[in-house]
From TrEMBL:
It comes from the Eukaryota. Transmembrane segments: none annotated. Pfam families: GST_C_3 (PF14497), GST_N (PF02798). The gene is Gsta1. Residues 3-83 form the GST N-terminal domain. One of its GO terms (molecular function) is glutathione transferase activity. This is glutathione transferase. Keywords: Transferase. Belongs to the GST superfamily. Alpha family. It comes from Sula dactylatra (Masked booby). Residues 85-208 form the GST C-terminal domain. One of its GO terms (biological process) is xenobiotic metabolic process. Its EC number is 2.5.1.18. Coiled coil: none annotated.
Amino acid sequence: MSGKPKLHYFNGRGRMESIRWLLAAAGVEFEECFLETKDDLIKLQKDGSLLFQQVPMVEIDGMKMVQSRAISNYIATKYNLYGKDLKERALIDMYVEAVIDLNELLMTHTFQPADKKEQHFATIVDKATNRYFPVYEKVLKDHGQDFLVGNQFSRADVQLLETLLMAEECKPDILAKFPHLQSFKARISNIPSIKKFLQPGSQRKPPLQEKDVPKLMKIFH
């Protein structure tokens, strides 16, 4: 288990996508091993690769890491994306945890039953524009710096950008009232490692389509 990190997950976003973003932002090349069938998952479970019997799992530095937050914390620390001291790390954690909450809402939209989709969409827009985005807008406005924490590129910037782009996929004008977030999006998107990840043909995954849901259900249920 040496060389490039190896990511074990299905060929889609889910809980692995933020990990892909972090590795890409750090300029780290990685390999992917996609689960195609239920048997692929069972094989990993039976050979002891999955500590808690679930993916995502990342092979890195001789470890088979599970639990997406633990994986992300390790990568962020290893590649200097986690602030310069304990206070900065606490801020980064707060910003990232809120982003994860919104990300979860966005990720689960495709799985909603037809009669719940409209209400779920309304909840996404309400929480994004009234609870989460105003906080990041104010942070960027108040300190007048390029990045969220310590004027240094961190995982908070990476994961906020990921979620901003997901929100725009859901509602293209969702950032209309947030000029500082619009500037942030443009600025972070132009960091060379991020810009590369946003190009067609990268390992960034497209939004989940409804037609993909039955295949996922067969793997995981």
